[in-house]
Amino acid sequence: xxxxxxxxxxxxxxxxxxxxxxxxxxxxxxxxxxxxxxxxxxxxxxxxxxxxxxxxxxxxxxxxxxxxxxxxxxxxxxxxxxxxxxxxxxxxxxxxxxxxxxxxxxxxxxxxxxxxxxxxxxxxxxxxxxxxxxxxxxxxxxxxxxxxxxxxxxxxxxxxxxxxxxxxxxxxxxxxxxxxxxxxxxxxxxxxxxxxxxxxxxxxxxxxxxxxxxxxxxxxxxxxxxxxxxxxxxxxxxxxxxxxxxxxxxxxxxxxxxxxxxxxxxxxxxxxxxxxxxxxxxxxxxxxxxxxxxxxxxxxxxxxxxxxxxxxxxxxxxxxxxxxxxxxxxxxxxxxxxxxxxxxxxxxxxxxxxxxxxxxxxxxxxxxxxxxxxxxxxxxxxxxxxxxxxxxxxxxxxxxxxxxxxxxxxxxxxxxxxxxxxxxxxxxxxxxxxxxxxxxxxxxxxxxxxxxxxxxxxxxxxxxxxxxxxxxxxxxxxxxxxxxxxxxxxxxxxxxxxxxxxxxxxxxxxxxxxxxxxxxxxxxxxxxxxxxxxxxxxxxxxxxxxxxxxxxxxxxxxxxxxxxxxxxxxxxxxxxxxxxxxxxxxxxxxxxxxxxxxxxxxxxxx
Length: 606
Hints:
By secondary structure, the protein is mainly beta. The chain is built from 5 helices and 36 strands. α3 crosses α4 and α4 (about 505-520) runs antiparallel to α5.
């Protein structure tokens, strides 16, 4: 007893007796573990070995949470063996080859082998109960069963899956040789799969959490021919379907998909697709699926898109028309995007705050799914003839242009540019014209367009420009003028028509609010620079439920004198703070809607 190679541990107690006609053995204790899974004998077992015959009385033991019973006899001419494995947890059964599956439920197998040694036959009943996935606890469990019979070199199988609407049924017959467990390619093959029900009940088991599919699905498919040259027949139809992509917001309603009987070869089936976008937009498609290699079906489709709302998110919407050809090696075509709108939505966090990704160290780290084969190439031309609007953060603009999408589906590469058709940019109450601006795609695998946007406004004696440049993920905002002025003077000119040195405290607060508009109510670096330029000791921009609020002021001796200005009417407040003793402060304030207020505050840090 003790550990052996391969993670195998065993401890046993047995006795052996020699009889006149052979040997009799008794096993009274057997415990151990294989690959961390325990097993133990439930009751004593016996076996005999005699000339021309070997037999095992029923051996019953617990195995990894299930129960295993084995009995049988083998003679020179015949074999008669039986096995029953009951209540084995699926988590245990699937752990060696798919530990990430997280399957729950139980597996029961009842099998027997009988007949002669030269022509044995076997059968097995397999039952799965309460099958579910730990990763999707909301999916109702399903049950499954299969019946297998093997004799004369052929395997017959039939079974069903219940708990997903109507039962899914299947049958199959194929050649199977006992020697080397080989499947001859020239052996006759037949099979059938039939199901009808709500496809959402099956789709819940598909590992595509960002996609939703529903509708009435009817499947009745058959296969004939040989293992090496199968022929297919039957139909599959999805009616009254609905598809939703949770990432892009794409919505397809009235989805109809039909797989028609194959051509004379029995290997190429016709496919048609039609859907709406919930409104006037449509998508249709016709094509084929070549099943010559069932393990890698080749899809060829021609798709026509008309006014389809392909993207509908809070920050973007886009309507698409055009045509695409899809083959296993290439996706090509031309599409027109119009209208489209990109909304520049302010982040809920200030720009100086990093949005951290929190990872639970106790949870297993998911690994990216491995892929095989070559991703299809892309050759798509995308036209923007106009009516592509970029709005938000004071910008209201229209764009047009052309881009090309190349590379592959696994690593798309976007090139081309969009140019401003017209636009205006409102900053601190001043309207600027958008001109000579572009959004360029540099042809890298990371799609991050480069911005080069200029907004211009002419005063009596100077023309000022707001420039937004750099990658869209981290744009840079700067100010220019003709004739050239320092940036702080340009901002002051835009806001008040005066230089920075002559600004009042209230105007300083308004200057901070303008900075908040550009930076999303944060912009620590810009605020610090303004504080230095205008010569105040404290300048802060804070975001609250009532909008942004700016505080600016200076220390006069031991007292701090400042103003607070918000975006709402009546939010101008003058404040005076004086520390009279350590930890004791007297604060007084006067605002535009109420009289003076004075308070004494005590504070202690622990």
